[in-house]
Design a protein that fits this description.
The chain has one domain (6-116): Metal Binding Protein, Guanine Nucleotide Exchange Factor, Chain A (Beta Complex), CATH 2.170.150. The chain is built from one helix and ten strands; from the N terminus they run E-E-E-H-E-E-E-E-E-E-E. It has one helix at 32-38, and strands spanning 6-9, 16-19, 25-29, 43-47, 53-57, 62-65, 72-76, 82-86, 94-96, 110-112. The strands form two sheets. Strands 6-7-8-9-4-3-10 form a seven-stranded mixed sheet. Strand 6 (62-65) and strand 7 (72-76) form a beta hairpin. The longest helix is centred in the N-terminal third of the chain and has 7 residues, at 32-38. The chain starts with 5 loop residues before the first strand and ends in a 25-residue tail after the last strand.
Length: 137
């Protein structure tokens, strides 16, 4: 496992964050919202303890989109980097793996919303448990 705190941020460097505890899970989301939000077949996210998260800089650059019936998705207004997600109240519950500065030390352990997986990118036979809809918490 890497040393704490784990650090990360956006592509332009305007937003920076720290995490004082290891993520407890890493998984893929194949829902159509994630496909459209990222322009890719899936979003890879790390579940975290919200109390271990600290925004270090860039609060003024943060923008959040909360779709009807969904959780909040926060990104940098300057470069567009996807940063984190959480419930509609704005709590940071999942960090986008691409926003980490280093490997958080966990391999993906699930794939959720595979019923909506992009037909142009077949799901790999990686042995990771698959859930047709949201994975059970």
């Amino acid at each position: 496992m890497p040393e704490l705190p784990l650090t990360g941020g956006c592509a332009c460097g305007g937003v920076r964050w720290e995490l004082d505890a290891q993520p407890f899970s890493v998984g893929y989301c194949h829902c159509t919202r994630c496909q459209r939000r990222t322009g890719t077949a899936a979003s890879l996210n790390a579940g975290i303890d919200p109390s271990a998260f600290r925004l270090v800089q860039g609060e003024e650059l943060l923008r959040t989109w909360t779709p009807e019936g969904g959780g909040s998705k926060t990104f940098c207004a300057n470069c567009g980097s996807a940063l984190w997600a959480g419930p509609p109240d704005g709590t940071v519950a999942a960090l986008r793996i691409g926003s980490f500065d280093q490997d958080p030390g966990l391999e993906p352990s699930y794939r959720q919303f595979v019923a909506y997986a992009a037909p142009w990118e077949p799901l790999p036979d990686d042995g990771v448990p698959r859930f047709e809809e949201r994975r059970p918490l």
